[in-house]
Amino acid sequence: MGKVKIPEHLVKAEAFAGTLLAKPKAPTNADVTKMFRLIKEWPTQQRPNVAPGGYSNPVVEGMVLGLCPNRSGGCSVAQASQQCPQLTKVVTRWAAATLPDAKFRYGSIQVNYNYRARKHIDQNNLGPSFITSLGDHTGGELWTGDRGVLDCHGCWKLFDGNTEHMTQPYEGRDRYSFILFTPDKYNRLTSAVCKTAKDLGVTAATTDGADDAYFSNFRDLGDVDEDAHVAFTEQHHAENPPSFGSGALSVETNGYAAGRGWGWIAWQTDKLGKDKVHVEKFKKNATGIHVVELEVAPPAKPHHVVTFDLVEVHRFNLYQDTDRETARFAKWVDKLPANRVVGVCITDTAMAKTRPLSKQVYDTFRLLGAPDSLTLIGYREPFAFLGWKGAPKGAAALAQDAKKQSKELLRLDAVLATDAAGRLSMTHTSSQLKLLEKLDEAADRENTAPPKKKAKSA
């Protein structure tokens, strides 16, 4: 990277950055605040998805440091980092000293000055992001669609940039927010860009095109052929039928990104514990969540087992009419009688890409025994759940694959038991199949199988 002239309004901040880097100690919050206060005329950006004025007034004050998308579809070193390499190094050195997770990696830093970002989902962000704010202000927390409000003033908070988020109202002299994130093409840099980015201190910058394990969880791994997917899942279902026995329950599911979806829920119906189960299959490419409502039938005789009677099958289309269907789902669960068993799966996506599920959805699942730490249900990500009304938090069984455009087939098998007082408890196991690998294996077997002999004609 050649010598780039520093704009007049950034000269003082860049010079102060040099003095900070000459010190043996890492920069503090106060150092970074002082450095950015030396910028009296802030650079501007066109950010219509974030700007308070939207597309009618998309200009905001801020800058991106580190890597920045370029017009050829890759990444270059951001203009502000070319102009102010010392300032960039101060920010990355400060981040290294203050981040709560030393393993976190990032390729870019978005710096925002004195504006309230409206509700949005990030563009060109793999997802995992850290945010903090500095300056003399009150308020300005980060609202997130999946984790609620995060107080990030003076401390780093982790959030998902691919979930809706926005800045809460604030008052005061100044607010500088810093977001560490990673652009999609962080691993496909030219050698020159990669070297400069690493010299600047960003930690996610490579040239080989390979993801490390952390970032691969946020990638779309490829297409799944629908016909091959149907053939495989039907055969897999025949070879791995639902579990049976006292209190047996099973769920299998995958999202739209794998063959346009798949899902079923099964439960024990034979009172003698034999392999008689009912399997409720759901239509693929049907958005929202599919739900079965089951009544527990305790053993009527000593030689009987716990079985289930179907009450009703429901579909809550949280994708299509998010607010109304969320309220309907919450109201339905609230009215369920105690110990009513609920099974859930998806066959497409529970949520719309730009409309994450609200806190009310997760709070409703907690009424059925989901844990406080329930991971957000992402776009086209498979989700399987078995619980009951009034279950203690954490007592339910669930399986998720929180990967972007997941290609995993999830299986959840549980056993529900009752005691003499009518209290319920559940044990479970879960498994995942990587469909891309399994379909490749099936194709290889088919290609290497010897040709079938033709019947001799009479």
Summarize the structure in short.
The chain has about 450 residues and is an alpha+beta fold. Helices cover about 20% and strands about 30% of the residues. It has 10 helices and 22 strands.
Secondary-structure map:
Layout: H1 11-21, H2 29-37, E1 44-46, E2 59-69, E3 75-77, H3 79-83, H4 85-98, E4 108-113, E5 128-134, E6 137-139, E7 142-144, E8 148-150, E9 157-160, E10 165-167, E11 170-172, E12 176-181, H5 191-200, H6 213-216, H7 226-239, E13 248-254, E14 262-268, E15 277-281, E16 289-297, E17 307-316, H8 322-335, E18 341-345, H9 359-366, E19 383-388, E20 397-400, E21 408-418, E22 424-434, H10 435-448
Antiparallel strand pairs: 1-2, 2-3, 2-4, 4-12, 5-9, 5-12, 6-11, 7-8, 7-10, 13-14, 13-21, 14-15, 16-17, 16-18, 18-19, 19-20, 21-22
Helix pairs in contact: 1-2, 1-4, 8-9
Radius of gyration: 27 Å
Structural class: alpha+beta
Q: Oligomerization state of this entry?
A: single chain
Spatial shape: elongated
Cα(first) to Cα(last) distance is: 80 Å
What's the main sheet like?
Answer: 7 strands, antiparallel
Helix content range: 10-25%
Low-confidence stretches: none
The overall pLDDT, averaged over residues, is: 90
Organism: Aureococcus anophagefferens
Protein name: Amidohydrolase
InterPro entries: ILEI/PANDER_dom
